[in-house]
Amino acid sequence: MSTFELIINGKPFTVDAEPDMPLLWVLRDLLRLTGAKYSCGNGYCGACTVHKDGEAIRSCVTPVSTIGNAKITTIEGLISGDKLHPVQQAWIDEQVAQCGYCQPGQIMSAVALLTNNPNPSDKDIDDAMSGNLCRCGTYPRVRKAIRSAIKSLSTGATTADAT
Q1: pLDDT digits over 12-23, tens only?
Q2: Which CATH number is 2-75 given?
Q3: Which of 25, 94, 121, 151 is the most buried (most CB within 10 A)?
Q4: What one-character DSSP code corresponds to residue 70?
């Protein structure tokens, strides 16, 4: 057992965990941040996606010992006060979710994409989102929501502000 000092969603946390414990279990079991989901356990499906210093990573295959001083952001950390991130709001407005299980990972991948590429092509979107599997097949709505979020981000307003 080791002690790790983590910065998650802008707040410091101290956790005692085995060095090889996946970040996903630290988040879900030790810190009760349950937005990131367990699905494949091998980093293939994207349900566990979080950000490490702004980059999308698979938390199910990331040992807590590799985090160091990196800033971790989970789906819970995207909300600012009571205001949803524009991507989260676009997901609601475009009714992306069916079962909803994969959606936190989808949203985290979309936010990372738009942070690094504020005006992606459809191919860029498809490439960035290809690692996130949705058994309900909401891929066309995912692309539509990302396009909607781009408009909101470019005007500096959320889709909720525009209504």
Answers
A1: 999 999 999 999
A2: 3.10.20.30
A3: 94
A4: P
